[in-house]
Every structure is written in C-alpha cells, then in structure tokens.
Amino acid sequence: MGEKPTIRDVARRAGVAPSTVSRALSGTSYVAPETDERVRRAAAELAYPRPVRRPRGAQTVAALARFPSAWFFAEAVGGIERTLRAGGYHVLLHNVGDPAARAALPDERWGLAGLIVVASSFTPAEQARLEELAVPVAVVGGSWAGVPRVGIDDRAGAVAAVRHLVALGHREIALLAFDPDDFVGRATAEARRLGYLDALAEAGLEPNPDWVVATGHDAPAGARAVDRLLSGPRLPTALFAMSDEMALGALRTLRRAGIDVPGRVSVVGFDDQAVAEYADLTTIAQPAREQGERAAALLLESLAGVLDGVPDVDLPTRLVVRGTTGPPAV
C-alpha cells in the first residue's frame, strides 16, 4: 500500500500553494472557480481525504507564539484573544519558543478550527505538518506563502531608526541584534538587519562587523551586547537595538559604566512598549495589539467563508524621539 497523500502532494499536482488547497477543500474563503476545480480534481486523483469541518460550538483556534510573556507577543495575543472571543471562538496558546512544545505541534487530535502564527518561522517539515491540518491560517508578522498576513515593514522601521541617528551626525552606529541561530524568529531579525545595512549604505557608511552584536532578544541580551562592545578597541557613538528590551538592557549597562546617554552614546529601540516612555527611550513604535486584532479578524472572515483573496497588510510604524538620542560628542 502506498504512502498516504499529503496536502503538498495535492498542491504540486494542482500547481498551487498548500494554503490554497486548504482554502479550496474547506470552503473557508474565496478561491477562483478554475483553481477550485483544479484542486478538487487533484485531490480526487490522489484520493486525498476532504477535511471534516467541526461544529462551530466546539471550535478552538491555536495561537502559536515564540515568547508569550515578551511584550510584542503578549500584546499581539491579547488582540487575537479579544477579537476571536467576540467572534465566538476560544484561543489556545502554544509556546513554539520551547523545544519540547515545537516537537508537539498541533495535529488533528486538537480539533482546531484555525491557526494564528505570531512572528514565528517554521522549518519546511514543521510547516508541512501544520498544513496537513487543512484549517484556515493567519499570520501576525513573519510570512507564510498564500496565507493572510498582518504585520509591519520591519526593514523600513530599521531604516528609520538608523536614518535618525545619521541625521544627528552619527557615523559609528552599532546594531544589537537578535540571535541568528533562533530559527523561529529569523525572518524578523533578518529584515531589521537589512534595514540597518540599507541606512548605512544610503549614508555612505561601511558597516563594522565588530559592531553587529547578536546576543538574543531581551534586556539581559542587550546588556551582554554592550559588555562586548565595551571590551572592544573603540565604542561606537550610537546603538540601534532590535527591541526595546535590548535597548533597556543596553542603557543600564552604559549608565553603570559611567557612559553618558545621549552625551557619549545614543540609543534607539524598536517597539515602543509602555516602559519605553518612562525610560525616555527613543524608539520605533509598532501597533502590536492592532496587528493581532486585524489578523484575528481576517481569520474570522476565513472561518465564515467570506474572506476575499489573501490579504497582506503592513501597518505603519513611526519614529518616537525621546531623550536617549542626540548629536555625537565633538
């Protein structure tokens, strides 16, 4: 007996994305008639079983997030939960930042109505497992081909942060980056790294590899990054941190070392979480809760079978200038 056909087998035969197969067979959103017919023909030829829709009253949506207690994830999941609850759905939070949890990704036994992926990446094998659920999916941040997405332009946000520093006169700008070995968050880290490099190139500045320090995503990671910079031969005049948490850790270490901010070193974060205002932190603001709300609303449309197309929405970011940036010392 041959192997059981997968959703990717159907997608290959029909010449579409796996998410299109899911939408066509489950009837959760609009698919062009000719595409719908091609998918159904491929599924029939492969004897691929049509997904079984569960009663609405028993439906639950799983939210997959890396660091549920971190600011961005907590805000986004809060928006997701509020919107889905208003639509009559329960939310099950699954922490994919934990290796054991990643080994136990949702399967058909969970009885899910849908998935929302919050700023998390998956290996091809993991994504294939999730696609086999054949349920509607929406994404907050990150990307998933053929799936409704709401996020921000991380690259453009990083460009704005570094442009601000360049406009103040800085030419020696370091990047405090997320851990590149963290596969789950790689897409966000890479977009912000590219934005940093774009802004340097725009200003005619060469990046210094010693000033790109990747240590993690939180305040201790920011502190470790600054410790490393302090041990180097020359301290840059400005730091761009990929998160407010990293920026706050950097600020504490700089101040404990007696280094004036912004007199000697300027610092810019990314997020504009509530504590950023009280730390007087210059940062890039992003609407995390609204991203969750909008993605959940798209998922509700998909579950109701009224979603038109595959929306890809970028919400605006903005530079918030406070007291941690200023011109470099003469």
Overall description:
The chain has 330 residues and is α/β, with parallel strands linked by helices. It has two domains: 7-151 and 291-314, Response regulator (Rossmann fold, 3-Layer(aba) Sandwich); 154-286, Response regulator (Rossmann fold). It has twelve helices and twelve strands. The strands form two sheets. It has a six-stranded parallel sheet with strand order 2-1-3-4-5-11, covered by helices on one side. Strands 7-6-8-9-10-12 form a six-stranded mixed sheet, sandwiched between helices. Helix 10 (244-256) links the parallel strand 8 and strand 9 (266-271). The radius of gyration is 22 Å and the shape is elongated. The N and C termini lie far apart (77 Å). The model has no long low-confidence stretch (mean pLDDT 89). This is Transcriptional regulator, LacI family.
Write the layout of secondary structure elements.
Blueprint (H helix, E strand, L loop, with lengths): L6 H8 L3 H9 L6 H14 L13 E6 L5 H16 L3 E6 L3 H4 L9 E7 L5 H8 L5 E4 L8 E4 L1 H14 L5 E5 L8 H17 L9 E3 L4 H12 L7 E4 L2 H13 L9 E6 L2 H5 L3 E4 L2 H16 L8 E4 L2 E3 L10
Helix pairs in contact: 1-2, 1-3, 2-3, 4-12, 7-8, 9-10
What characteristics describe this protein?
Rossmann fold, alpha/beta
How helix-rich are the residues, as a percent range? 40-55%
Number of strands: 12
How many domains is the backbone divided into?
Answer: 2
Global Rg: 22 Å
State mean pLDDT (0 to 100 scale): 89
